[in-house]
Amino acid sequence: MAIKNSLQRVDDNKPAKLTISGYLGQDKIKQWINGMIGSEKEAQKFISSIISAVSTTPSLQTCDQNSIVSAALLANALNLSLSPQLGLAYMVPFEDNRNGRTVATFILGYKGYIQLAIRSGKYRKINVTAIKEGEFVSYNPLTEELDVRLIADDEEREKAPTVGYYAYFELINGFTKSLYWSKKKMLLHADKYSKAFSLEAKKGRDPKYDKVSFADFEAGKVSEADMWKYSSFWYKDFDGMAYKTMLRQLISKWGIMSLDMQTAFEKDGSEIYEANEFNERKAATRREIVSEMAGIDNNDEQFSEDDFFGDVPADADAPTGDDIN
Could you say which DSSP state residue 236 is in? Predict the structure, then answer.
């Protein structure tokens, strides 16, 4: 009994996790940041920006605090503000189940791609936009000629449903490249690459994790209590994710990429990519074991891991798969 009370006292006296302000206020952390930033004045501005970002996104308070600083240092190195209002870059909480922690992940916004392209000095023009219902006439993927009849009234255009997305750039040397995707193609892309997004209604063994179709989601057929299941950016800002996907496809294949842009491409949600690759390898191994036990051919397209392990939802606060694309 005495041992139990002793252990209890140790647990009671265990220091609570520091707030982000308290963590950043430690001398050793300040010295580390000063060394990375190179100026005490700039370091203080950097610390203030982190505190502001975390207060704006309360879910970041659960993240490993070293990961918050690391993500913010990357944004600082790229000279991209983490202000959500600007939409250049974000820190997003991600459940790192491999290491049993929540980390702050650097995510580049589509406006960040445009900003880095402009700064490179290689682009004369760069743009991405939505094509609205009634505007699209034709698109020739061979010649990249898009024929549209844009709606002149801005308010009317804003209200019209989106039917596709168009991205375009012109380099200083005169080279041009463009890309058009229908919204249907973008929806299929999101459905294929994002584990947190579902185009069709999705049902699992536990009704708590059921999802409505994306069409029903857009129509507002989701209660406030169920919104936690739709935390993917593909639900929160489909057009923004579509713009980002178009720019990634266009620039990475045909554009000129500065060192900053290469860094941004490589680091954009890298923790999510690594975790998903690990989970895919783990799932593949598990499928092989289950297939062997059940006598199922691994190449059978009807085989689904859900048949054995149930339907597990994506983490509520974490984008997955192509949420970063």
Answer: H
**Partners of 107 in beta bridges:** 90
Distance CA 201, CA 211 (A): 5
CA distance linking residue 139 with residue 142, whole number of Å: 9
Which tokens sit at 125? 């023009």
Longest CA pairwise span in the chain (Å): 82
Q: Is the dihedral of CA 266, 270, 275, 279 positive or negative?
A: negative
Give the integer Cα–Cα distance in Å for 66 and 15. 18
**pTM score:** 0.75
Q: Can you give the pLDDT at residue 69?
A: 92
Provide the sign of the torsion angle of the four alpha carbons 288, 292, 298, 301, taken in this order. Answer: negative
Region 35-52: mean pLDDT is 89
pLDDT band at 320 (very low <50, low <70, confident <90, very high): very low
Distance, CA of 80 to CA of 43 (rounded, Å)? 15
Burial of 31 (0-12, 13-18, 19+ CB in 10 A): exposed
109 within 8 A of 323, measured Cβ to Cβ = no
Core vs surface per residue 143-168: b (16+ CB within 10 A) or e: eeebebeebeeeeeeeebebebbbbb
Under a CB-based contact definition with an 8 Å cutoff, are residues 167 and 127 in contact? yes
Sign of the alpha-carbon dihedral angle for 248, 252, 257, 260? positive
Judge whether 18 and 28 are in contact, CB under 8 Å: no
Q: Are 112 and 74 in contact (CB under 8 A)?
A: no
Provide the 10 A C-beta neighbour count for residue 230.
18
Residue 199 CA to residue 90 CA, distance in Å, equals 25
Does 288 score more than 90 pLDDT? no
d(CA 47, CA 176): 41
Examine the pLDDT at 10 and tell me if it is beyond 70: no
Q: What is the pLDDT of residue 279?
A: 46
The pLDDT confidence band at residue 98, using thresholds 50, 70 and 90, is confident
Helix (H) or strand (E) run with residue 115 in it:
helix 110-119
